[in-house]
Design brief:
- By secondary structure, the chain is α/β, with parallel strands linked by helices.
- It has a single domain, classed as Phosphoglycerate mutase-like (Rossmann fold).
- 41% of the residues lie in helices and 11% in strands.
- The protein contains eight helices and five strands.
- The chain has a five-stranded mixed sheet with strand order 3-2-4-1-5.
- The termini are close together.
- The relative contact order is 0.22.
- The mean pLDDT is 96.
């Protein structure tokens, strides 16, 4: 049996190369069409998930809904905050040029290639901090980040993945996980025991599907 990973469809912020992170951006028109095309592809190859997971973020949920509505319209979408994208702290919402202006090109290049380097943190009174978002009212504030390194994000996702694998051993129904590029990298790192160099080399395009075989 297998678990299928899907990166969400394209957003306007993906196109403009802004740090999206936990910013709740929906799909662009292109992203909607990508999601519809992917749903049709999965339908054509006869793939029908028994369980569907998404992150808490619109772009993930919307992509999952387009797939669900065609393949398995009666299924609920199980939303898991641990599947959220990396939280980029104070970098969220900033373009490449804006990051360079605020923190320098050297920092930007280092941050996006350093597994352990944290971004500048958000303060608790910043509207971008997840404690100020009603979406996370039921999540303990202790778990809500003010910014994450890629390592921090990996640790968060790894908890979800290990729990999923344990449940999969008891219930081998097919699972579809619709999430984010760095989340997929973290899952693959955990599943295959990849090193840090491999993490940064994994290319995950919008609406890419990756099948992981699980014993």
């Amino acid at each position: 049996m297998s678990i299928v990973l899907v990166r969400h469809g394209l957003t306007e912020w993906n196109s403009s190369k802004r740090c999206t992170g936990w910013t709740d951006i929906g799909l662009s028109r292109v992203g909607v069409q990508q999601s519809i095309d992917l749903a049709n592809y999965l339908n054509n190859i006869g793939y029908i998930p028994s369980l569907i997971y998404s992150s808490y973020l619109k772009r993930s949920i919307e992509t999952a809904k387009y797939i669900r509505d065609l393949l398995a319209p009666n299924l609920l979408i199980n939303r898991r905050w641990r599947l959220n994208e990396n939280h980029y702290g104070a970098l969220q919402g900033m373009s490449v040029n804006e990051i360079d202006d605020a923190y320098g090109e050297e920092f930007r290049c280092k941050f996006f290639n350093d597994f352990y380097l944290s971004p500048p943190s958000l303060t608790i009174d910043d509207c971008r901090h997840p404690q100020n978002d009603k979406l996370y009212d039921l999540i303990s504030p202790d778990y809500l980040p003010c910014g994450e390194s890629f390592y921090d994000h990996f640790c968060r996702v790894d908890i979800f993945w290990r729990r999923l694998i344990e449940s999969y051993k008891q219930d081998k129904r097919s699972r579809l996980i619709v999430c984010h590029g760095n989340t997929i990298r973290a899952i693959m790192m955990s599943h295959y025991g990849l090193n840090i160099e491999h993490y940064f080399s994994i290319d995950v395009s919008n609406c890419t599907t990756i099948r992981l075989d699980v014993d």
